[in-house]
Amino acid sequence: MEPTLGNPKNTIEIIQKYEFNFLKRFGQNFLIDTHVLDKIIRAANVTKDDVVLEIGPGIGTMTQYLAQAAGLVIAVEIDDRLIPILHETLKDYDNAVIIHDDILKVDIRELAERYHGGRPLKVAANLPYYITTPVIMGLLEKEMPVDNITVMIQKEVAERIQAGPGGKDYGALSLAVQYYAEPYIVANVPPNCFIPRPKVGSAVIRLTRYQKPPVRAQDTELMFRLIRASFQQRRKTLQNGLNNSADISFSRDEIVAAIESIGLSSNVRGETLTLEQFARLADALAGADKKNGDTQVVSCK
Ligand code: SAM
Fold first, then answer.
1. Which residues contact 232 (CB under 8 A, 6 or more apart)?
2. pTM (two decimals)
3. Considering only CA atoms, which residue is closest to atom 1 of ligand 1?
4. What's the 30 CA to ligand 1 centre distance in angstroms?
5. Non-local CB neighbours of 136 within 8 Å, separated by 6+ positions
């Protein structure tokens, strides 16, 4: 079944027929460019063996393309006004399931169990931008059964996710995502590919989940606490950033000793450290943490 949507004429026809008005609070910007849709489907590497979770299908544009390529598409849409529209635009696709719900409340593990025997799903979406970070980090951190995420997001956020050490875009989000997945910006997409046009540029990014994280820290939670503290105060030295953070309880001496023990200068800036170096720093400080613990127990007695 060839997709009928993805061009301005048919999109406007559907919108007028149902007297649909776009809601900003749901981040509603619908795709009207077939080239972009083809690119997303190709980048997501969707085959008939795949079950794809689509977040926010809108009027079903990308859903039609996904249904053509995938074994099954599960489309989760929050806006009740779009449900009857989806039933019309997807009526010829018997491999598309429509779920009326908020993606942040959906049990994705249960969906994978029910529709794919517990095997990992692929995720594809033109994401409502207001939930970009909770969706991406929720899928990665909570270890959802998902192996490949291909999503349209704000260009600026895509650049932050893909950034490497030293640049202005590099930060806690880059490291948080890169711990779980390999990011790749597939395409930049201008505002005129959507109706209505968003105020900012967009990009399609693919996140390929690692089987196991590229670095190992003894205490992952401590590593992420160090990462967040290091980027809270940009252009400060790492030792000052960590020393000033309310979330880090090590003394300045312990921080400096840990930084130097991994072969870095005590004046190094946090934004130059790689993920591997943050893991080594966490390991060095985990030793100090243990010593702190011992000291506290002794002094309490
Ligand atoms: N996929 C369509 C397209 O590309 O034309 C629509 C994309 S539009 C950017 C985002 C869609 O996500 C809208 O249909 C919106 O109603 C829906 N949405 C917003 N918040 C949602 C949520 N929390 N859960 C599920 N869908 C949501």
1. 241, 245
2. 0.90
3. 57
4. 8
5. 149, 151, 153, 161, 177, 207
Element (H, E) at 87: helix 83-89
What would the two tokens of residue 186 be? 């597939």
Q: Report the amino acid identity of residue 263.
A: G
> How far does residue 56's CA lie from ligand 1's centre (Å)?
3
Ligand 1 residue neighbourhood (C-beta within 6 Å): 26-31, 55-58, 61-62, 76-79, 82, 102-104, 126, 128, 131
Q: 216-241 b/e with 16+ CB inside 10 Å = b?
A: ebeeeebbbbbbbbbbbeeebbbbeb
Burial of 95 (0-12, 13-18, 19+ CB in 10 A): middle
pLDDT mean by block of 10 residues, the chain; 301 residues: 83 94 95 94 95 97 96 98 97 97 95 95 96 93 89 97 93 94 96 95 96 92 93 86 90 94 94 95 82 43 36
